[in-house]
Design goal:
Blueprint (H helix, E strand, L loop, with lengths): L4 E6 L2 H11 L2 E6 L3 E5 L6 E6 L8 E5 L3 H10 L6 E5 L5 E6 L5 E6 L17
Parallel strand pairs: 1-4, 5-8
Antiparallel strand pairs: 2-3, 3-4, 6-7, 7-8
């Protein structure tokens, strides 16, 4: 399986459009006020917003960047507010946290090889 897209709910797709464009996602579908879709600038994953009132509700979105600190500095300079600056985490990822206009939690992170191969990864047993 290959992940195609993640869709989150947001009350105001115009705000969401501006926010995710500022993060660097590239719009590919615009049927506002009900739906918008972006392609991530690296790879071919897509991310979409669907109009609705229930937002946030425990959703966390992870966007990996090669240089979290530079991305953070660029976004802060562009007026994006973060709830925490880049920090090294005990699970070996570097993360910066922010929230989109719909209340969805976003983490910009860099994990490198630890993204799918952390030291504690489950290894297949040999029969």
């Amino acid at each position: 399986m290959n992940l195609n897209q993640v869709t989150v709910t947001m009350p105001d797709l115009d705000e969401g459009w501006r926010f995710y464009c500022a993060l660097g996602l590239v719009p590919i579908v615009d049927t506002r006020p009900n739906y918008v879709r972006f392609i991530c600038p690296d790879g071919d994953s897509t991310f979409s917003l669907h109009k609705g009132e229930a937002a946030g509700n425990g959703t966390t979105i992870y966007f990996e960047c090669d240089d979290v600190d530079t991305q953070y500095e660029n976004l802060v300079a562009a007026g994006i507010t973060f709830s925490s600056p880049p920090q090294d985490q005990s699970w070996l990822w570097r993360e910066a946290e922010l929230f989109d206009p719909g209340g969805n939690r976003i983490l910009l992170y860099f994990a490198g090889q630890n993204r799918i191969n952390p030291p504690w990864r489950i290894r297949p047993s040999n029969p």
